[in-house]
Amino acid sequence: MKLAPVFLGSLARRRLATLFSFTAIVLGVALGMAVQAVHEAALREFERGLRTMAGAADLQVVGPRGGFDENIYAQLAGRPEVAEASPVLELQVKWAGSESEETLQVLGIDIFALARVTPVLLPKPASTADRLASLAEDNVFLSRAAQTALGRQPGDEIELQAGTQRRRFRIAGDIPGAADNRRLAVMDIAAAQAHFGKLGRLSRIDLKLADDVAPAAARPALQAMLPAGVLIEVPEASAEQAGNLSRAYRVNLTLLAAIALLTGGFLVFSAQALSVVRRRTEFAFLRALGLARRTLFTWLLAEGAIVGLAGGIVGVILGQALAWGALTMLGGDLGAGYFSGLQPTLQFQPLASAVYVALGLLAGVAGAWLPAREAATVSPAQALKAGGETTLLGGRGHPMLGLGLLAASLAACAIPPIDGLPLGGYLAVACLLAGSVLLLPLVAAGIARLLPERGPVPARLAAARLVAAPGHAVVAAAGVLTSVALAAAMAIMVASFRDSVDQWLHQLLPADIYLRAGQTQSSAYLDEALQVQISTVNGVDRSNFTRHANLRLAAGKAPVALIARTILADGSNLPLVGPVRLGEQPAIWISEAMLDLYGWRVGQTVALPLAGQLVELHVAGIWRDYARQTGAIMIDLADYRRLTGDRLANDAGIYLAADANTEQVAAALTAMAGPGVLEISRPGEIRALTLKIFDRTFAVTYLLEAVAIAIGLAGVAASFAALAAARRREFGMLRHLGLSRRQIGWMLAQEGALAAGVGVATGLLAGGAIGLVLIEVVNRQSFHWSMDLHVPWASLALFALGLVALAALAAVLAGRQAMRQDAVLAVREDW
Predict the structure, then answer these.
(1) Which H helix or E strand runs over 319?
(2) Tens of pLDDT, residues 113-126
(3) How confident is the model at residue 616 (pLDDT cuts 50, 70, 90)?
(4) Which domain of life is it from (predicted)?
(5) Closest CA to 754 of 766, 765, 762
(6) N or C: which end of the chain has fewer CB within 10 A?
């Protein structure tokens, strides 16, 4: 007996249900594959850039953003463990005509040391006669990408910003070994120090060790001779730190894609379960002809496997296309800012592609397993009886297992992060989803008992079916529950996050206007004389200046931001969380990330490396920071200047006099430097731009929500189409009993509304719980910040009512063909 046409041909006959299942698996696989491909491409490009910059260096001496004493170079170069040492001054510099966020990476180098440690970055003079061009103080060499970005070529002149001044340089050649997409400039280190106000300062020292010295052996001895805040790292440390920073964001997106894939598995389950109902007589005849239960089970699994395998293959192909589009539109960080400025190139990944194809196959097999098992266990005689579909789908679920999974989700929330990932939070989300699905039949039966016993006949019939066969609710509502839970959880988390960010910005931006000379990391700054000028501009009541620096507290960890600004004694002008405890030492205020990453607590005395010396400071309070997940420390500007001697500033908050004209004051402030040097922003503009970036960051999650909702609704339509076809005889009997097609249509509408209502109600409850897990566990452990709960009640209510109404309409439209059949023909098989 040839069984392939019997079973696999069924997929073609029920094209709509197969298409929905296939589409869900394709989207789940594609989204996961796209996130994986984009992140791998970005990280690969980032690592390639670091390898180029490090060259043959075994170790790197690194310090804070402001640099460290250049005398360290001579001390290290004379050590017996060190064969070669190459000093580097690294700056991010704006050029004349650049956009606000555009910078050029400038490296001040010792050409002779560079040739021995990092020869790939050696500059090449445009003229062979000018062999000493790299030593000239007004010469700079640009990579091809930098020349393209600036629209310049060798022989041209460019202006680079130092502080609020612009310095003119001549492009003397290019950097042949630089990456094609890296905007890089190289110049003599002495010239860079002089032009950019960094005399006596270095950013890093690349060390090439002697042949018989291992990096692990040399590192402790070399570290012991360095001042506080200057560390020795391996060149790969920055890549590892970037990977760790972006990993949580990538894993969160991947798990959202996995939930879409899970929804696809539910749709396969729904389609297969209803296909089993519709084909029960066919299976009974095959069993009567000698088909073994195991063979029937295997072929039904094969149907789901075909859908899953095809979805996996197409999903991987679509994922590559989505990855290309995401790189073009959002960049290598998918809008999150981890790899900004990179231009990664996609590469096909055979192993990852095979894994995602296997995941699609697994989703199809998992979805088909339970219907296949139930079909194989039903006896042929029972399957031939009218009403047998109730036996197949009339299960009451597994309430005790469902409750156990819900209880397990609470325990999972208490699991600490493992290798920086909130695996306990992810396990809690999985337990909540699985437990909710297992409780669906019980919830359906409970809702049915609450329905009024009197009323129109269609309503009473719909309620009676819900009571008699609550297992139908699982089939029709499982996909709805999953998609609604995902959408509700993300809506609650995103709304809470967005509202918290908005409140945070309002508290951090109290001034009337803000002025800055460039990005925090750039070479632009406000010197002390300019600060005095700003404060005396007509219309300015007062000005608060801010200095941005960073500290290296531990090897292997990313630098911690240090922000010096005017802070009230009780910290009331900061977005504080928790109590305030003042001490005898100068106060610092730490972000929430410092608790998780370094274990600091309020009231604790800590030693910070400031100006090369360890200084004891008192942790007075904790503030909320949504800008940095690696940790941040705030200190009063007066204390910072007294302890470091650094009197520069990066930006200023300007408070205007009561009668001042904002536009006139802004014009007067920007006129103090050259055109385009000083940037003026209003708090409303900064908040609007920040929230725009926020929305871009969550663009992928919005897409996943929309996809999940569409899939859930499609699942309802497919479920009722198949179920209505299996209930033709029931509809015929109802017609004989006097019901009109219109009444049967109303009955189907109410059944669809009830099934969707069960899924929506349970999904909203599950989504609320998952939203809390995302806020309190996943976000806190992934990104080290908290947020206030904000539930978008109106949006969720409108969403729920709309989905129930659409489900009712989908049920009626799906059952129209079955209702058209003649009543006598419909019941003829039972006579």
Answers:
(1) helix 293-329
(2) 998 888 888 898 88
(3) very high
(4) Bacteria
(5) 762
(6) C
- The pLDDT of residue 823 is 46
- Element (H or E) spanning 534, and its range? helix 528-535
Cα separation, 537 vs 513, in Å, equals: 13
Q: Rounded CA gap, 800 and 763, in Å?
A: 10
Highest mean pLDDT among 15-19, 785-789, 802-806: 785-789
Tell me how crowded residue 692 is: count the other CB atoms within 10 A of its CB.
10
**Could you tell me which of 784, 331, 698, 340 has the C-alpha nearest to residue 519?**
340
Q: Please check whether residue 26 is in contact with residue 32, taking contact to mean a CB–CB distance below 8 angstroms.
A: no
What would the two tokens of residue 309 be? Answer: 């395998």
Q: Of 268-277, 298-307, 654-663, 755-764, which one has max mean pLDDT?
A: 654-663
Instruction: Give the C-alpha separation, 642 to 619, whole Å.
Output: 18
Q: Where are the alpha helices (DSSP H) in 205-292?
A: 215-224, 237-278, 280-288
The answer to whether the predicted template modeling score (pTM) of the entire model surpasses 0.70 is: yes
Which of 54-68, 703-717, 785-799: highest mean pLDDT? 785-799
Confidence (pLDDT) at 339: 45
Q: Is the CB of residue 803 less than 8 Å from the CB of residue 756?
A: yes
Residue 348 CA to residue 363 CA, distance in Å, equals 23
- The DSSP element (H or E) to which 654 belongs, if any, is strand 651-656
- Amino acid, res. 720: F
Contacts of 797 (CB under 8 A, 6+ apart): none
Per-residue burial over 243-265, b = 16 or more CB atoms within 10 Å of its CB, e = otherwise: bbbbbbbbbbbbbbbbbbbbbbb
Over 345-409, what HEC string results?
Answer: CCCCCHHHHHHHHHHHHHHHHHHHHHHHHHHHHCCHHHHHCCCHHHHHHCCCCCHHHHHHHHHHH
Q: How far is CA 65 from CA 59, 70, 109, 562, 633, in A?
A: 18, 14, 17, 10, 15
For residue 148, give every residue at least 6 positions away whose Cβ sits within 8 Å of its Cβ, in sequence order, or none: none
Q: Are 422 and 782 in contact (CB under 8 A)?
A: yes
Using CA atoms, how far apart are residues 398 and 409, in angstroms rounded to an integer?
17
In this predicted structure, the answer to whether residue 717 has a pLDDT above a threshold of 50 is yes
**In 10 A of CB 817, how many CB atoms?**
12
In sequence order, the 6+-apart residues with CB closer than 8 A to the CB of 784 are 591, 592, 593, 595, 596, 597, 629, 631
Q: Which are the contacts of 636, defined by CB distance < 8 A and separation ≥ 6?
A: 564, 565, 566, 567, 586, 587
